[in-house]
Amino acid sequence: MFNANVGSSTLKDSFEAGKEAAIFAKKDSKNIKLAFMYSSVEHDQEELLKGASKILNNVPIIGNTSYTGVITPNGFITGDTFVGIMTFSGDDLAVGISGVKKSIGARETGQKAALLALKNSGKKQVPNYFYMAATPGNEELYLKGITDIIGRVPFFGGSAADNTVEGKWKVFTNDNIFSEGLSVAFFYTDNFFANNFTECYRETNNVGVITKVLKNNTLVEIDKTPAIKKYAEWISKDPSKLMGGNLLSETILTPLGVKDRLGDLVAIRHPMFGNSDFSISLGNYIATNTAVIQMECTEDDFINSIETALNDLKRRFDGEIAAFHLAHCGGGKAVIANRMDEVYEKIKKCTSSIPFIVEFTFGEYGFYEDGNNTCGGLMLSLSAFGK
């Protein structure tokens, strides 16, 4: 039997906040195998982990900082010092976690994390599925490193976030806290797992070929035209208004997307920074000689997408659901910041009495049916776990 509980706190003292959230998340649970924790960048993460560990008796904890809040069954939990914890327990569940600071190449760091998680699981076989939390910038290479070790295994998760895109984010496990690197959790269980990796955008007729890329995630040219100039033409804006950090906020409702090989999934590529040579720094990797699409949506689309995606996830699930884990794009949350009560109500309507936790991330991970594991931005990665 697979069970989950959720707790939260807004106490200012980090140690006490960790304790309070863990008390609620522990409840009457027995044999807890893992705790997800998502917190404010304003917390002392070391003290927060110490407080939670004191209550959870050194249960493996994994997580990261979240953009301005979390959502739990108790509502949208925000403020300067928030934290949310979800515990998983079950006799037929085994978990191996690891956290690795990036001190070598990103792919090699992913390999190291996978090997440590395998060791810590006490298992010789690859997991049924896995979770990844990483700092923004190298997610695809971390994933490649993990895949090098365990092959193609479904995954879910998201990238750490701060409140200002300043790099204050943190990824952590019980005894590892870092601003560049990743943590992983390998799950071993016969219980059903499903993930819905999706977005709320519509394709436009603005499509071009990526003709020049630098360092995997800098879009230099579209159709041999400087990327910002082509993009500005598509969205009818002055290129000078899209330079620097302005690009990030100006593009949340009109980002770029790339299709998978079958056209089933459009992975969103969020323009993050407009460079002086009119190139675009993106949140994820791209490749030359592939098509890029200008996407579009409204605030209402962001609000409604969570209900649509959760209902779709429930339809594809086989059996009774024990818990939901939801990674929601931080950029989308920024657009609908004043309407979080609506988001909460839609989630609560779909989940009913089933425990859930929502983190707000600067990158989302998941998979779509027979497609490869994928990293994107401005997306939703919704996961359900069977009892």
Describe what this molecule looks like in 3D.
The chain is α+β, with helices and mostly antiparallel strands and 387 residues long. It contains 9 helices and 26 strands. 26% of the residues lie in helices and 37% in strands. The strands form 4 sheets. Strands 14, 15, 16, 17, 18, 19, 20 and 21 form an 8-stranded antiparallel sheet that branches. Strand 2, helix 2 and strand 3 (61-65) form a beta-alpha-beta unit. The model has no long low-confidence stretch (mean pLDDT 96).
Strands, count: 26
Amount of helix = 25-40%
What percent of residues are in strands? 35-45%
Calculate the terminal CA-CA distance, rounded to whole Å: 5 Å
Largest sheet: 8 strands, antiparallel
Brief rundown of the structure:
The protein is α+β, with helices and mostly antiparallel strands and 387 residues long. The protein has 9 helices and 26 strands.
What are the key terms here?
six-stranded mixed sheet; eight-stranded antiparallel sheet; 26% helix; 387 residues; 26 strands; 9 helices; alpha+beta; globular
Give the secondary structure arrangement, pairings included.
Layout: E1 2-9, H1 14-26, E2 32-39, H2 45-56, E3 61-65, E4 69-72, E5 75-78, E6 83-90, E7 94-101, H3 106-121, E8 129-134, H4 139-150, E9 155-159, E10 171-173, E11 176-178, E12 181-188, E13 193-198, E14 202-214, E15 218-222, E16 225-226, H5 227-235, H6 246-250, E17 256-259, E18 266-269, E19 271-274, E20 280-282, E21 291-296, H7 299-315, E22 321-329, H8 330-335, H9 340-351, E23 356-361, E24 364-366, E25 374-376, E26 380-386
Parallel strand pairs: 2-3, 8-9, 22-23
Antiparallel strand pairs: 1-6, 2-6, 3-10, 4-5, 4-23, 7-12, 8-12, 9-24, 10-11, 13-26, 14-15, 14-21, 15-16, 15-20, 17-18, 17-21, 19-20, 22-26, 24-25
Helix pairs in contact: 1-2, 3-4, 7-9
